Amino acid sequence: MAKLNYAFRFAKSGMMVSFISLVISGCTPSNKATENMTSETIKAPVAKKVPYEMIQHGHKRIDNYYWMRDDTREDKEILAHLAAENNYVDAQMAHTQPLQDTLFTEMTGRLKKDDASVPYLKRGYWWYTRYEGDNEYAIYARKKSSLDNPEDVFLDANVLAEGHEYFSLSSVAVSTNNNILAYSTDTESRRLYTIEFKDLTTGELYQDKLVNTSGSIVWANDNKTVFYIKKDVQTLLGYQVFRHTLGTSQDQDKLVYQEDDTTFYTYIGKTRDSQTIYIYHDSTLSTGISVVAADTPNAEFKMITPITQGHEYDFDQHNDWYYIRTNKDAKNFKLVKVKRDDSADMSKWQEVIPHRESVYFEDFLVFDNHLVLEEKENGNTNIRIINLSTNQVTALPFNDAAYVATFDTNPTSDSDKLRYYYSSLTTPGAVMEVDLNTFSSKTLKQDEVLGEFDSNWYQSERVFVTARDGKKVPVSIVYRKDKFNKDGTNPVYQYAYGSYGATIEPYFSASRLSLLDRGFVFALAHIRGGQMLGRSWYEDGKMFNKINTYTDFIDVTKSLTEQKYGAEDKVFAIGGSAGGLLMGAIINMEPELYRGVAAHVPFVDVVTTMSDPSIPLTTNEYDEWGNPANKDSYEYMLSYSPYDQVKAQDYPNLLVTTGLHDSQVQYFEPMKWVAKLRELKTNDNKLYFQTNMDAGHGGSSGRFRRYKERALEYAFFMDLVGINK
Predict the structure, then answer these.
(1) β-strands 492-495, 521-525 pairing
(2) Is residue 381 within 8 Å of residue 402, measured between CB atoms?
(3) Would the CA dihedral through 102, 104, 105, 109 be positive or negative?
(4) Are 272 and 316 in contact (CB under 8 A)?
(5) Are strands 168-174 and 152-156 parallel, antiparallel or unpaired?
(6) What are the residue numbers of the active site?
(7) Range with the poorest average pLDDT among 4-8, 33-37, 540-544
């Protein structure tokens, strides 16, 4: 449970899946009416200008493209303009189609089509998911008692997805008696999920249908009660927790909690021991947790400890104790424990793991006989095992220069084995299992890379770049050895995010091999705004320190070329969502550094969006970016807001993508930005804007289709440096 704050904050911007794959772009099929038209006959769309005046703190802004906002997403003029932009991209990129096809075939060809997750045992069943052939979605299955027993397929997402251009399965939750399935789906990409129920003994669907939910589902232990979160359909904030009794209509559901403070997010869950249901209250700077026994779901929820400004915490429980990861007098967090009945009294909290200035305490798991810690020191993750009887401490060994190690599925506490996930820039992801008593370990599964691949062909490095204020910025680098000479001639693909404290880890990507094999150097910049170097690293990249995020990225670019990792005229920058804001800022500040930039679902109209509480996420973001109602925040945000800072200058070649139904960054932000860039930029560099008309923040749904989007991005960059195969 300890990573809830980080995970939810990351997920709330829609990046948990999209950024793990670095795919957030969107594409739409070519319009058949334009198939015979060439890049010369289709011209870049020029948007009309309709001045719209906004005055804040006595300062006037004129937005000529405000008219592009349509909350219904049905305005014919807007849709026609987006279609024209898509047709323009299709025409201009048509000559790269053979390369795109080659890239798509390469990337999907590395994937094992018939694949499965590592099964885990809980409540007498082995649970797992698997893929078959060219199917886009997972099959959910289980086997009773033994893996040698027959398979029971209890949900096939491919069947549910039939007939839908977009499909997302959010939660799959089975009742504690293993007989009833609850699952939530979204077919519009607005993250408004519908929950349905299935009798696993008969295969029949229940009449119950819960609409406009966050997708989360938590079963009580009576096998008839579920908790879910209902969303405001305008702001898309999940703010009401309801209790539903199976067999009744949604309008009879009991409201058990309502969040009236719009700066808070609301989440629900259940502890690993299945004894407690919790409501998680999360703002940028403060958190709280309310709990109820899973055996008595009709009882009142009670707060573990009252919410106080600046206090963030999460918890796990074991027997009569809460283990609490807290930042109380501990910027990088510490671990305490307290009797469950005494949790509200902080004077009774007993320190278990003290605060350390140089170590960021990320996560923990409590087992019957062991405590396991996940920590980050100097940018690398440590996993430490503590024997609760002897207090013996053992650290797991990791040898790569840059890697990710994090807890995998550990469903119960009565185990003496820990599962964790390991990957590096050169090592395909693996699920590992270590014996907590003997420390012997084994690989349960390692992702297969089909085709020609040898991890020894590639080299990873971790370097530290000195930023302009003297701070050392970690950078994870990987390249193919026989394609790289440290002579400043290679193209560089530089990626970063840098917001919400989200740490983008140096994981392996099979699709990235298509870049490395063609001589690109991949550089992941762990800039301020994330937490690679602890909590201070995040605080130095938010609010009135936000400029550090952008200058860090720029300083990394300059250092990489100075150190001859790449050519000055072949640097490509990539970011999405808040990372798209990063892209917008750097090209306003020092556009000459970049040959090309890809900005996916970019958050670029910062001041206007943050001034409108009706837009999803706005009110929850005040402690991240600032509230423009305050003059100092308004002026600071205005100083870097990409849309507001567009000016008459040369800009790099740009590929901008969005989704019409994006629930996190509304489509009209990048649409307006592109129109203003096209109006003011002073060179003839490419400016392409593509909208996925069927998807949202995460791009295309499905296992394979997303690689069409990545192939477009890669081909865009490769074309700029003369790579055509």
Answers:
(1) parallel
(2) no
(3) positive
(4) yes
(5) unpaired
(6) 577, 662, 697
(7) 4-8
